[in-house]
Description:
By secondary structure, the protein is of the alpha/beta class. Strands 3, 4, 5, 6, 7, 10, 11 and 12 form an 8-stranded mixed sheet that branches. A two-stranded antiparallel ribbon has the order 1-2. The protein has a two-stranded parallel ribbon with strand order 8-9. Helix 9 links the parallel strand 8 and strand 9. Helix 1 packs across helix 2.
Amino acid sequence: MDLICIETFLKVATNQNISKTAQQTGYSQSAITIQIQKLENELGVKLFERIGKHIYLTERGHAFIPYANDILKSTNAALAFSQKEKKAKGVLRIGGVESICTGLLPDLLLDFYQICPDVEVIVRSGTTTQLLHQLSCNELDLVFTFDEKIYRSELICDIQQEEKVIFLTLNNSQYTHNKIIPINELCKKPFILTEANAAYRFILDRMLIEKGLEIRPILEVGNTETIINLLKKGMGISFLPYFTVKQLLLNNTLIELHTDLATTRMYHQLIHHKGKWITQQMEIFTSLVQNYFQKK
Length: 296
């Protein structure tokens, strides 16, 4: 079975678009089509169905993904067994949700570069759902997310660390430390929130709906750093993971606001697919994340 055809299958499964896959791989669209057809002929099943200009995985195509990942895992293991004692080389592909990409990855990647200067690192951001789909199609090696606990039989969670999400604003005389603010009153204040598809924003909205409340933000911004910079300028209140604002809380630039709403707790999770061959660079990065949380 042609490994190139299997790699192409996984890329098309992720993109669900032949022209985009052609751009990524350097093959022509016709070459991509031929590779898929060759694999379909070998397997004796249809992996994709074409409806108009769009391409979709068939039921058998979905079922073949774990087998494709297993084949590549075994191949990578065979190629890498003699490299164990050598300096890490190759590529490390990390997927992270936006808050992780801005709040944790920069320092971790700097440490990783000092240990593995010859490894090319590719970082992709997205929602947890998007990243886990890419993981299942072997487009990512690791997913670093901040979400509710994830349980799936095909996934292995290397690290799981609890973290709270808090209300906060600029530290000024308007708010008093540790004073409990009724949530129905706080909801009336001007808020800057991340987009609704962020996991912690979704949970906040769900908790408020249960109480018959809602927050109508004056601004929705997908970038955590932008929200923090606006808070530092005195623009409203926000709801952010503690790790993204820890230093600003410690130096009293920002202040946590306490309410009668239950504390929101979510989880840092570093995940890989159980069918994935664990490379040396994956092991090193995982160790760096473990050390980070142990020190914390």
